[in-house]
Every structure is written in structure tokens, then in C-alpha cells.
Amino acid sequence: MIELLNIKKGFGDKEILKDVTATMAAGKINLIIGSSGSGKTVLMKCIVGLIEVDSGKVLYSGQDFTAMDNHQRKEIRKEIGMLFQGSALFDSMTVEQNVMFPLDMFSSERLRDKKKRVQEVLDRVNLNEAGKKFPAEISGGMKKRVGIARAIVLNPKYLFCDEPNSGLDPQTSLVIDKLIKELTVEYNITTVMNTHDMNTVMESGDHIVYMFEGKKQWEGNNEEIIFSKDKRLNDFIFASEFLQDAKEMRQMEVFKDKNWRDKLKASNDQLDADREEKR
């Protein structure tokens, strides 16, 4: 679990993050969404420590990351996996070598054990035959899966994904979304994702933070978002007529269920209980 407590950040006279508080739960896909300039990218960089906050706290499983020295932060970072927007693979390394890289950096295991672990994660992302290939020899979707394998090779507690579907076709995007979701649940990872992909929001958003002009404008999940009355959120998510029609159809599907009120209330009650427990 990652907790953000009253995060503030500015550059010069410009205030970028304005008192942001949120909790990212383990075993869930936690999305940060918002238009360009909303502060979502700066927020993610603050969470991982690439940018220092001006005030507030970032807690990793109760440990104050913002108060740690470099040595202490290094220990936390050993538990973090990163999936970059462009995959960020080393062109001169094979797939196996790319996935091996974090093990070489942080693990003291024997080479034989490292190779075994690399093969395990490549098998998990369905790339068991691609180990000897170079990035230039594989597709964009395969590169993303190599990036995911590298991100999980150290068995991380926390996984950060920056626009994981960027540059992918819709069908491949669904495959990547499904894979990240499965791994998040399977290993009980706290996954934090920065995305513009509305399919990801609607299908994978266990917990969604919508940023607007540096503030947390709205918070909820992919069921609540359908019924949100927040105009700024709706203008962002359901910007086109097609998406507005899709929203109405989803609402109609819910309303056809005679017990929709009870189910929606039960879902909201559970969310309230979860949030109260986190406090």
C-alpha cells in the first residue's frame, strides 16, 4: 500500500500539486488520470522520488519515503518495478539480458539462479521463445511484455506504469491491460498507472484519481465513474458523442438489473468501509 498525505509541489512561482491525498491499495490497479498539465506526471515522479515534494508525505507500507536518506530509499526501490512508456529496452542487449539487468544491479544470486528467474518471468508473459532476440527483432507489444517481465523480475511489491498502452493498437492494448491486471492480483502488487487510455480506465480502474489543475478533483472506481456527476470528470472521460453514448448504454445495462440499487449501494458501502479502514 502507498499513502499520499497532503502532497504539495511547485516550480518557481507555479504550484503544480495542491494538497493531494490518496491511498493506493495492494492487489489493485490504481490509476492517475487527467489532461495534460493536470499534475499527474509530477505526482507519479514525486511518489517514486524522482522529484522531491515541497511538503507532505509518501508512505510505502507505512514507511515515510520522503524522510529517508539515499541508502534507505535504495532499499525501498529494490521493491519497485517500473514499466516505462517507450519500454526503455537496451537495444544492444537481448531480451534475456534486458530482463536480467535488474538482477545484475540488485541481486547477489548465482548466475544459474538469475537465468532461471529470467526464464520464469518470460514464460509468465508468454515470451519463452524470444529470449535470444534483440528489441529491433520483436513487435511493439512484445517489447511491452519484455518491459513487464523486467519490471517483475525482482518480485516487486510496487509496480509503476507510465502510459503502458502508448503506441499500441487496441487489441494489443487489451492484452497488456489484462496481463498487468493478472500480475497485480496474482502477486498482490500495488500497481500505480498513469494513463490516457479510456478503455484501461473503464476496464481496469479498481481505484481512480482524477487530477485537475494540480488538485485531486475526483476519486472512485470504474463502476462509480459511470454515475459521477462531476462535470469536469465527465467532460474529460466522455468527451466524444460515442463515449457519451457508451456511458448511457452502460447505465442502461445496470438499470435492467432489478437489484441494481442494492448492488450499487453494497459496492459504495464496501468502498466507504475500505477507505475508513485505510484511515
* Tally of helical segments: 10
CATH topology-level fold name: Rossmann fold
The domain count comes to: 1
Find the count of extended strands (DSSP E, 2+ residues): 10
Low-confidence stretches: none
| Arrangement of strands in the largest sheet | 6-7-8-3-9-10
Mean pLDDT: 86
Q: Report the CATH C-level class.
A: Alpha Beta
Q: Indicate the proportion of strand residues.
A: 15-25%
What does this structure look like?
This protein has about 280 residues and is an alpha/beta fold. The protein has a single domain, classed as P-loop containing nucleotide triphosphate hydrolases (Rossmann fold). Helices cover about 45% and strands about 20% of the residues. The chain contains 10 helices and 10 strands. It has a 6-stranded mixed β-sheet. β4 and β5 form a beta hairpin. α3 crosses α4, α3 runs parallel beside α5 and α4 crosses α5. The longest helix is centred in the C-terminal third of the chain and has 19 residues. The chain is globular and about 55 Å long. The model has no long low-confidence stretch (mean pLDDT about 85).
